[in-house]
Specification:
The complex is a heterohexamer. By secondary structure, chain A is mostly helical. Helix content of chain A is about 50%, strand content about 5%. The longest helix of chain A has 22 residues. Chain D has a domain of about 55 residues.
């Protein structure tokens, strides 16, 4: 059996090993290009210090961005959607069972009557 | 048609069971509703196996050759024992929830949401 | 009869009998010592996995294996004097069942290895391991059985064992609340399944799946039974809008058990596919049912992933992703079902969509198991699941971080991990069916990546926080458990085609080929 | 016709006891109604020629389930409050 | 109340279909009885029991009965886990 | 509970026990079997447990014994089924039927008086299941009572 055979998806092909080889080759090319560049960075000088418009650097623990601050904009943009979808997850078992029974009834109508 | 009474009873019991499960807020009442539903299914299975004029499928006592079908009875036995296992587990959950949350009201057992 | 012959012949029975026997004896073995108990559990699991692999090898090399409980011979499905009807309980292990057996064996073994150290701080571990082995029995039984009432019994074993294990850490009542919700919903589902069994029995006097399939007429009663089964099994596998128990149960169960709960809900997914493909197949209106499954799948994908993004609990976030990924499987197989009757469309993309969906079952079990295990490792070390309190763990938990990256990239469908291969198959075949669904699937994939970037950033990145300064790497058994799954994720990502050829295509074939299933039980009907 | 009268009575009793189970706010009374329900359904099983199931239902449904329900009610409080 | 309307509507639909089911099936005259006739005819010789219900429960469908015992075992283990005495610090408190 | 209830339970329990064991033993001949008999005995056990207080009961009825009983029943059940492998048969094959040994008298088709020594492995399974159900259901009641007790203290 050919281990490296590509997957034929009916529309295109996917050959991970070839992709990986190309990826590695591209990385090597990038690395070589990067090597040819000229380094102006000098360790231990003023260059290494963070530049914060003259302010003092804050403490390490304070600069960590906590999880709920991420994607604030995304959640704000989709506020209408989330206001509709989150209250459905009420946490009340009765509501969950009503959803279940209602879906069963709906499927009964769709399959039993319409088809 | 009219003598399909056991089946009609099954439907009515299912209705009452589902109403009890969906309308009541007390976990123990919900469990009673589930018990009614389970009994309805059991009755459904046993009625499916009934033959007009049949006798119980036991050769020691049976006077005639016509017997009711034995398979639904075996299935129902299994179903009954599963039912009591379910009840035991749900009631233990209710007892622990009463101890931890101070209530068995479904509307107030909703710390996991969102 | 040699020993090897014995194992090969009786593999389907041993698959269930070994873990059952071990589970029954654990309360006694646990009295001896903790080490003896661990050895007993682990040995049982390895033996069961070996039997599962032997069985799967036999199925994939020679075709469907049947095992008749209590008959004069293991493959005597139809007694000579019965007039062509199967009367006993039959295990019918075709390629699809063997595929699920392989998944369950791999995930079960690595999760058990992991739980040997992750649960070691808890009390009454005999009960925990007994329930874990019973869950494994339940999954093996559900996917192997060819008898519908037997399916129901294993479904109940699985839901009781799962409910017990979800409530295992009481956690101030939260775990019990999750278990209660899961258990009452699944009891309702089981009642519907029992109604369906009664309907089949009343009409056809048969409980065997192949026999029901052969006698199927698709009358009004069969429609009702179909709806009951589809609703109940879709609820059990966590399809929107009946997914509400999933985040609760997945987040409150012990992490190791959560990784196996994923496989448990996939067993229900298997049941759903078995019902629509094997029991009904062409007798019903495939397009309608196919579209229902597709709609359930698309809803699951979108709502699952959008609900995942704002979550703050790491396991709850992953649980919503499990809902979302289940949508991919439903979408792929649903497309295959919708075009089932049409030969040209099936060969054009329907079969490929089914293969994609089924391959995704395997991949999802592996990487979602891996992700839940890494979440459990983090919880084991820092004692919280709140993403807001985490940060900077990459400095100390390097291996866990690597495993998390592998899992996260795989779930987001980044090449060359295994998630990409199956998602590509789904995208391209679904695009031919209906471009909108393919685009939705890709958007969902991007959102998945986005939310895992959030998790990665807030857990591992950033400066080392003072409160976690002395956090250590997870213990070795946990790392080995995660490593097995990570290795499979990479391996299957790099070499997808052999897996598709060997495992997935036969499984899809077995699912679509109703005649073959009936013939293997009833004999060339 | 005449031999069906006991069956009709039992089935009616089933429905009535199920409704009572729904109706009682006092959980102990509801449990007793459920016990009566179990007993009646066991009688119905006997009428339908299933003695094995009848014994099983009588012992498990009417006996044990009632016992564990009473234990649970002792632990969780006797009256359901604030229900619709 | 939207919820109540949905509830009543789905309950009515459900009972309507179950009612169709109840009226379609015939009580007292099963359509097909071949499997059970086999049990009644051959069960006594093949299992040696006079009670055919037991022969079906323990022999023909004995595996189901094993599963049923397992369900009971699950419940017992689950109840014992819930009421176990926990160590200090074993429970994780949210919030 | 009052002395009358206790005395009643004391007298009733042996009767219930014997009745349950009769149901278990004659499962293959008359209505009944392992589940029914085990449940009847467990109901009797529940009566005794309810009649006495939990502290008294837990002195002479240990959970370990009941758990052991349940495990023995289950292992016996699956062991009887697994023993078929020793005879070179498939799982759950009724190897004892018509073998002439214990429970092995052949039964012809038709109505007969009901010999106790018949039924193949069915009586063995009835005993195992009876043992298991007896232990298991009593254990459930005991555990739930222990839950109440800890809440009250």
């Amino acid at each position: 059996m050919d281990l490296t055979a590509p997957v034929l998806t009916g529309y295109g092909i996917w050959a991970p090993v070839a992709w990986l080889a190309a990826f590695v080759a591209a990385t090597i090319v990038v690395y070589l290009l990067w090597k040819t560049g000229e380094s102006s960075y000098k360790k231990g000088t003023e260059q290494g210090r963070p530049y914060l418009s003259g302010n003092a650097e804050p403490e390490k623990g304070a600069v960590h961005i906590r999880a709920s601050n991420l994607y604030w904009g995304f959640l704000q943009a989709l506020k209408g959607y989330y206001d509709a979808i989150v209250p459905i997850h009420t946490g009340v078992l009765t509501d969950y069972m009503i959803w279940f029974v209602a879906v069963t009834a709906m499927l009964l109508v769709v399959i039993g009557v319409l088809s | 048609m009219l003598w399909n009474l056991p089946f009609i009873t099954v439907v009515v019991l299912t209705f009452i069971g589902i109403v009890t499960v969906l309308m009541k807020k007390n976990i123990i009442k919900i469990l009673l509703g589930i018990n009614i539903l389970e009994s309805a299914v059991n009755l459904f299975l046993v009625s499916l196996g009934y033959r007009e004029g049949g006798v119980a499928p036991i050769f020691t006592l049976a006077p005639s050759e016509l017997m009711v079908l034995p398979t639904p009875q075996a299935l129902t036995l299994t179903s009954i024992v599963i039912g009591v296992a379910t009840s035991a587990l749900v009631l233990s959950f209710a007892m622990v929830l009463k101890k931890k949350y101070g209530t068995v009201d479904i509307n107030e057992i909703r710390r996991l949401q969102g | 009869m040699t020993f090897v012959d014995f194992i090969v012949t009786n593999a389907p029975a041993l698959l269930v009998a070994i873990p059952l026997f071990a589970a029954f004896t654990i309360p006694a073995v646990g009295k001896i010592s903790a080490a003896a108990r661990n050895l007993w559990v682990m040995g049982t699991m390895l033996l069961t996995a070996a039997v599962a692999f032997i069985l799967a090898f036999r199925v994939f090399s020679t075709g469907t294996v049947i095992y008749v409980f209590g008959a004069a011979a293991a493959n005597l499905a139809v007694p000579l004097d019965s007039g062509g009807i199967p009367i006993r309980i039959i295990f019918t292990v075709d390629a699809m069942s063997a595929f699920m057996d392989v998944i369950c064996a791999i995930v079960g073994t690595s999760v058990l290895l992991y739980s040997l150290s992750s649960e070691s701080r808890n009390t009454n571990l005999e009960g925990y391991y007994a329930l874990y082995l019973l869950m494994i029995t339940g999954v093996f039984g559900m996917v192997s059985t060819g008898d519908f009432f037997n399916f129901f019994v294993f479904l109940e074993i699985l839901s009781l064992a799962s409910a017990g294990i979800i409530a295992y850490r009481i956690d101030g009542g939260l775990a019990v609340e999750a278990a209660l919700k899961y258990f009452i919903l699944s009891t309702l589902g089981a009642i519907l399944v029992l109604f369906a069994i009664g309907i089949y029995y009343g009409q056809y006097d048969a409980l065997n799946i192949a026999m029901i399939a052969q006698r199927m007429q698709f009358s009004m009663l069969d429609k009702i039974a179909l709806v009951f089964l589809v609703a109940a099994l879709a609820m059990k596998c966590g399809a929107v809008p009946m997914h509400f128990w999933t985040p609760d149960a997945y987040s409150m169960a012990p992490s190791s058990a959560t990784a196996f709960l994923v496989v448990a809900s996939q067993a229900s997914l298997y049941g759903l596919f078995r019902v629509v493909f094997t029991m009904y197949n062409m007798t019903m209106n495939c397009a309608t049912v196919g579209w229902i499954i597709i709609i359930l799948g698309v809803l699951s994908m979108v709502i699952g992933v959008t609900m995942a993004i704002p979550q703050k609990d790491i396991k709850r976030l992953m649980a919503y992703h499990a809902v979302s990924q289940t949508g991919y499987m439903l979408l792929g197989v649903g497309v295959g079902l919708a075009v089932l009757g049409n030969t040209t469309l099936t060969s054009a993309y329907g079969f490929m969509a089914m293969e994609g969906g089924i391959f995704h079952i395997f991949n999802h079990a592996m990487y979602k198991g891996l992700l839940f295990l890494t979440a459990g490792a983090i919880f084991y070390r820092i004692g919280t699941r709140d993403l807001n309190k985490m940060g900077g763990l990459g400095h100390t938990m390097k291996y866990t971080m690597i495993f998390f990256i592998i899992g996260a990239l795989a779930i987001a469908g980044i090449p060359p991990f295994n998630g990409f291969a199956s998602k590509l198959m789904i995208y391209e075949s679904v695009y031919l069916f209906n471009p909108i669904f393919a685009i939705i699937a890709m958007v969902v994939s991007i959102l998945t990546l986005a939310s895992f970037v959030k998790v990665f950033h807030s857990v591992f990145m950033g400066p080392q926080l003072p409160e976690y300064a002395d956090v250590k790497e997870a213990p070795l058994p946990m790392l080995i458990g995660m490593g097995i799954l990570a290795a499979i994720v990479i391996l299957f990502g790099l070499f997808p085609q052999p897996v598709v050829d060997m495992l997935v295509a036969p499984a899809a074939n077995a699912l679509a080929n109703q005649g073959g299933y009936i013939a293997s039980v009833l004999g060339g009907a | 016709m005449i031999e069906q009268i006991p069956q009709i009575l039992v089935l009616l009793g089933l429905i009535v006891s199920a409704v009572l189970t729904y109706y009682f706010k006092d959980l102990l009374a509801a449990t007793l109604a459920a016990g009566l329900f179990s007993f009646l359904i066991s009688l119905e099983f006997y009428i339908l020629q299933a003695p094995d199931v009848a014994i099983s239902q009588a012992a498990i449904g009417a006996g044990l389930t009632t016992a564990i329900l009473i234990i649970a009610i002792r632990a969780t409080g006797r009256y359901e409050e604030g229900s619709s | 109340m939207k919820k109540t309307v949905v509830l009543i509507g789905s309950l009515l639909i459900l009972s309507a279909f179950l009612g169709v089911m109840a009226l379609t099936l015939t009580f007292g005259a099963p359509k097909m009885t071949d499997m059970d006739d086999y049990f009644l005819r051959f069960g006594q010789e093949q299992t040696g029991t006079n009670n055919q219900c037991t022969s079906v429960t323990f022999d023909f469908r004995g595996f189901d009965t094993l599963g049923e015992s397992t369900v009971l075992f699950c419940a017992v283990i689950g109840v014992s886990l819930i009421f176990r005495k926990m160590q200090a610090g074993e429970e994780y408190e949210n919030e | 509970m009052s002395r009358i209830v206790r005395t009643g339970a004391d007298f009733l329990y042996p009767a219930i026990l014997i009745f349950g064991l009769y149901i278990v033993a004659h499962g293959h001949l008359t209505p009944g079997g392992g589940f029914q008999g085990g449940a009847v005995i467990a109901t009797g056990g529940a009566l005794v447990i309810v009649a006495y207080s939990y502290t008294e009961v837990s002195e002479w009825l240990s959970g370990k014994v009941l758990m052991g009983q349940e495990v023995i029943g289950l292992v016996g059940f699956i062991g009887v089924a697994l023993l078929a492998f020793a005879f070179g048969q498939v799982f759950f094959f009724n190897y004892l039927n018509a073998s002439g040994s214990l429970f092995g008298i052949p039964v012809p088709y038709g109505i007969n008086a009901g010999e106790l020594n018949t039924g193949g492995f069915v009586p063995l399974m009835n005993f195992s299941v009876g043992c298991e159900v007896w232990g298991g259901l009593t254990l459930v009641i005991l555990y739930m009572l222990s839950g109440i007790r800890r809440e009250e203290s």
